[in-house]
Amino acid sequence: xxxxxxxxxxxxxxxxxxxxxxxxxxxxxxxxxxxxxxxxxxxxxxxxxxxxxxxxxxxxxxxxxxxxxxxxxxxxxxxxxxxxxxxxxxxxxxxxxxxxxxxxxxxxxxxxxxxxxxxxxxxxxxxxxxxxxxxxxxxxxxxxxxxxx
Length: 149
Description:
By secondary structure, this protein is α+β, with helices and mostly antiparallel strands. Helix content is 61%, strand content 18%.
C-alpha cells in the first residue's frame, strides 16, 4: 500500500513549495515540488533566453575571431610570398645593372685603347659618343673586339 501525505506547505508570495512523503513496502521517499506563479516563470524564461542569446553572441564573436585569425594568417603567407617575389625581381635588376656597368667600363676602356692605337698609326678615328656605344650594346651582353696588331 502506498500512502501520500502532505507534510507542510510554504508560501512566501512568489512561490509555493510542497513537500511530499511517499512510503510503502519498507521504502520511503521524500520530494519537494516548487510552484512558480506565471510572472516568475516568465522572468526565469526571459533570463534563460537572455543567457542563450549571450551564449550565441559569444559563439559568434569566437567564430569571427577564428575567421579573422585565419584570414590574417593567409594574408601574411600571401604577403611573404609577394615580398620574396619582389626581392627576387629587385636582385635581378641589381644584377643586370652591375652587368651594364661592367659593359660600359669595358667599352670605355676599349674606346680609349682604340684611340691610342689610332694615334700611333696617325689615322683619323671617328669619335663615338658614350651613349651611342651603350645603345649599340644594350641588347648584347658580351662584346669581343678583335684588333689587327
